Amino acid sequence: MAQEKQSADSVESPGFYEIAWNLYHSYENFKEKSLTNRRFKHSDIVRLIEQLKNKKNFKVDKVGNSVEGRDIYLISMGSGKTKVFLWSQMHGDEPTATAALFDMFNFFSDDNAFPDLKKLILTNLSIYIIPMVNPDGAEEFQRRNIVEIDLNRDVLRQQTPEAKILKEVFDSLKADFGFNLHDQGREYSAGNSFNPASISFLAPAPDYEKIADKITEKTAKKLKEQKGLSLAGTGGRMMDDIQMMAMSFNYYHEVNLEQARELIVYSINKYLSDINNSQEIRPYLHEYPFSSKNVEIMIFVYGPDRLELPPEKIYCITSRKGIIRYYTRSDRDHPICKETYDEALSEITFSQGLGVVRK
Predict the structure, then answer these.
(1) Percent of the chain beyond pLDDT 90?
(2) Terminal CA-CA length for the chain
(3) Which residues touch 221 (CB under 8 Å, ≥6 apart)?
(4) Structural domain total, the chain
(5) Least CB-packed of 22, 123, 139, 235 within 10 Å?
(6) What residues contact residue 190 under an 8 Å CB cut-off, 6+ apart?
(7) How far apart are CA 8 and CA 26, in angstroms?
(8) pLDDT at 184
(9) CB within 8 A of 210, min separation 6: which ones?
(10) Under 8 Å between Cβ of 57 and 108
(11) pLDDT for 246-260, tens place per residue?
């Protein structure tokens, strides 16, 4: 125990490295055994959160609900002056950090292991955690929430209850440190080596995100003026470069399959034209030119009165990874038509101004 106390004083002390070694080799004692499948659900963590309510180091508060009504919790521990805020699984298909947080809860629940270290942490830090910000996305094991909005791109628009909850908690805490916890693909290396990056601390470069947002807003404005599409959300996949850009819209006119095809292809073409014609964004694109596989567009269709259309009518048109799908409310899981962008494009042609010319 003396070594643990010494290790907390300075990372230069021999005790620090010994405690790190001991922690590493004690991990199996704290690993949450019930979260071994990557596709664990909200119900799986709720059971564990309920158990934390009865443990002395933790305070559990419900801070809101997701689109589909799943509870979102804030778990607090410690009484220190320095505030640390962590949140996980903004992207529903990135569960690693959520599982790791419950490993950490198990560590702080154990009264016997590393008591001096835990005392030092909890007396110097106030730690606040939201595990699984996007429970609906986790349920479907998909990046976005259930209405297809990327929560990590909804900070400014605040269209989703999940993003609003996160911002409200963030603003109320005024934390000294914040950790937005994500998974990372295996293809990312440590520096210029061939070694995979197991843990990365990333500060997104603001320049290319701002450029991408500017182009998205430019395209959305054109689509509003030319096609009556109302922007509902934006997103993208941007780690070390721009791999994908995305928009979602509301459209207040009934469409048949042919009209839906024209609308989505027109939107894709406009978006790609604005992206590929921008000299400013070109150095940051993962590949140039961007193709239909690099943009995602979703259009929700309503009646002119802004009410839902009958179940047999097309209510949603999506384009992802170069595949276009058309859905009715009568079967939301299976599209009435699925085609590649190239197949859709072959059915229609456009004039130089991208007006539709029927074949």
Answers:
(1) 70
(2) 80
(3) none
(4) 2
(5) 123
(6) 196, 197
(7) 18
(8) 77
(9) none
(10) yes
(11) 999 999 999 999 999
What pLDDT is recorded for position 5? 40
- Tell whether 212 is covered by a domain: yes
Q: How far, CA to CA in Å, does 20 sit from each of 11, 16, 30, 64, 126?
A: 10, 6, 15, 36, 22
Q: Are residues 44 and 174 in the same domain?
A: yes
How far is residue 315's CA from residue 335's CA, in Å, rounded to a whole number? 11
Neighbours of 332 (CB within 10 A): 11
Same domain for 44 and 166, yes or no, is yes
Domain residue limits at 164: 31-181
Q: Report yes or no on 190 lying in a domain.
A: no
Rounded to whole angstroms, how far apart are CA atoms 89 and 144? Answer: 10
Statement to judge: residues 281 and 341 lie in one domain:
yes
β-strand partners of 314: 328
Ramachandran angles phi, psi of 189, nearest 5°:
-105, 170
In a domain, 11, yes or no: no
On whether both 173 and 230 belong to a single domain, the answer is no
Nearest-angstrom CA–CA distance, 164 and 234: 16
Q: Are 284 and 290 in contact (CB under 8 A)?
A: no
Give backbone dihedrals phi and psi of 109, rounded to 5 degrees, phi first: -85, -20
User: How confident is the model over 6-62, as pLDDT tens digits?
Assistant: 344 444 444 677 888 889 899 999 999 999 899 999 999 999 999 999 998 999 999
* pTM for the whole structure: 0.61
Phi, psi torsion values for 191, nearest 5 degrees: 65, -140
